[in-house]
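Treating backbone geometry as a discrete language has practical consequences that deserve illustration. The amino acid sequence and the backbone structure tokens for this protein are reproduced below.
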Amino acid sequence: MIERFFVKGARFNWAAPSAISTQPQDGSIVVSPPVTAPMFYVGLDDEVVDHSLPNVSTLGFRKDMGIPYTWLNYIHGRTAKVSTMGDVLTGFMSGCWITTWTDLNGRWVGHLGTIESVGKTQPPNSTVKNTFAQAMPLTVTGYNPALAFDAGDIMPLMAKMRGKPSGQVLSLVTAANDFYSILLLERMDERGIWICAGKKQMPPVAHGVMSLELITTRPRR
């Protein structure tokens, strides 16, 4: 499981896949198109690294090693799902729910593709949530990765860094169905190098609580 590689200060060479905005925003649950986006560990960042950590070689780090994962697309106005027994990354996160469940076809990880610029109770956000709430099996669990970090976590760290960094939150669902939010920073003068600035394991939300969270976003009549 790859969560051990996301230690504070770890640097990754990675072309982050873009969100998909070309599909109909009809709330459908669809299989995520395959994406190949290799991620390589390229060392530790001197401004961000936590020097209290043990030597990263004890965690299995090697320079230029690849990080194995499956990418789950963020599709605007739809829920994308991927079937895998491995670790799943998706993002970037601003409020979408990430879920996992099993059915007769195996284990799935899903990304409810709500759109930040649209009201929570307005289509397609309400359409995405209501459609998934009606379809999700009892085995579903999920979380909202964006809740792990707020401006108080991110801004002080970025203020101390060179290169005018920006921050993004990445979701990790491990092969064991543990949920993690990962804070990544990218300097404007070092595009494509992402620095892990924090990792938080998030508690799972089960079917009943998730139903309430999703269905309460319906517009009031």
About this structure: The mean pLDDT is 92.
